[in-house]
Write a structure and sequence with these properties.
Blueprint lengths: L2 H12 L11 H19 L3 E2 L3 H4 E3 L6 E3 L4 E12 L6 E6 L1 E2 L11 E2 L3 E5 L4 E5 L1 E2 L4 E8 L19 H15 L10 H24 L3 H8 L8
Parallel strand pairs: 6-8, 7-10
Antiparallel strand pairs: 1-11, 2-11, 3-9, 4-5, 4-11, 8-9
Length: about 230
């Protein structure tokens, strides 16, 4: 669904806001749909990216340990050093870096090729250790927010199409929270919030299962149910 179709679904089928004057402006509803996509990406980590240069590529500078992350990055899932042929600049190898985000990097002022990293998403930065002693190409695998807000009618959400209607539920929840006309023949804001929460829960479960493969332990942990092995 593109933005025009989402707006039609939201205004006419969901909010039934067809009489003039409108209860909600187009600008307001578009803003809620964009917020919905951001919230969905943050909560589900569905938008995994390893190709967008601005979000996934860092070239180090000698003596600099900390580098800014792109504002869209939610988590850094993986980082690695790319080696290239000095003559052709073609990629010849990839060495993963050890993730020390949940621990601490040594503070020694050792310089060399990076071997470890901590991703400090709250401060939108990533720290490498050892401190780079030259220009190294670092490639990241990240989960991120949408890169651009939808504003044109033919703009399409970055998240998978199967979750597009969940954006409508969230936008309806926000619209009704800010302006709930008494006596209107429509569901309440809490009803749409409940539909949104279910959609996010199911999406998180489906995405986790897809990435974990057929590991029942991983599926059991993700859904919050205790995993039992029956013999």
């Amino acid at each position: 669904m593109n933005l025009s179709e989402l707006m039609e679904q939201l205004r006419c089928a969901t909010l039934r806001d067809t009489a003039l004057p409108r209860l909600w402006s187009d600008t307001e509803l578009v803003r809620y749909l964009n917020q919905a996509q951001i919230e969905f990406a943050v909560r589900t980590h569905e938008l995994v990216d390893d190709t967008t240069t601005s979000a996934c590529k860092i070239t180090t500078i000698s003596g600099q340990a900390v580098y800014p992350l792109h504002k869209s990055v939610v988590i850094v899932a993986e980082a690695g050093v790319v080696t290239r042929d000095s003559a052709t600049q073609e990629e010849t190898g990839y060495t993963p870096l050890h993730d020390r985000t949940r621990g601490q990097l040594p503070r020694a002022h050792i310089k060399g090729c990076p071997a470890r990293y901590t991703a400090q998403v709250r401060t939108s930065s990533i720290r490498f250790s050892p401190i780079p002693d030259a220009a190294y190409d670092i490639e990241l695998v990240v989960a991120r927010k949408p890169l651009y807000a939808m504003d044109k009618g033919n703009d399409v959400p970055e998240i998978s199409e199967e979750y597009h209607l969940a954006l409508v539920d969230f936008a309806a929840f926000r619209a009704l929270t800010n302006n709930n006309p008494e006596g209107a023949n429509m569901a309440s804001a809490t009803d749409f919030k409940a539909l949104w929460d279910v959609a996010v829960r199911d999406a998180k479960r489906a995405i986790a299962t897809l990435r974990a493969g057929e590991n029942p332990q991983a599926r059991g942990n993700w859904t919050g149910k205790q995993y039992r092995r029956y013999t």
